[in-house]
């Protein structure tokens, strides 16, 4: 499976926000993240970088 | 490998923009896309949706 983990960059540190993300959709100035189990999180943040081969989505506020 | 393909939504149709994308980084009002071979494309577009399990990144202008 090719899901990715999302990290929120805070004070230069990456904090794990959500694992096994399948979908990412823009939502009200941020994103809706949905994992492979259908669970959703909404976060006001922007993309800093995505590294798909490393399964990494890095967001920042 | 968990790279994805990027499509640009134009007039309701998805046009293949780049295959086997590893990295996606915001760049001047759009994104820099880099595939697993290190080739890069710059596109002025925003994310409409990402479906990682389906290896799909959908962008729109």
TrEMBL record, chains A, B:
Protein name (database record): CooT family nickel-binding protein
One Pfam family matching this protein: CooT
Domain of life according to the entry: Bacteria
């Amino acid at each position: 499976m090719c899901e990715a983990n999302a990290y929120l960059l805070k004070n230069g540190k990456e904090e794990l926000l959500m694992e096994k993300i399948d979908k990412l959709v823009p939502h009200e100035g941020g994103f809706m993240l949905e994992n492979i189990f259908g669970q959703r999180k909404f976060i006001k943040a922007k993309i800093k970088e995505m590294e798909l081969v490393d399964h990494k989505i890095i967001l920042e506020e």
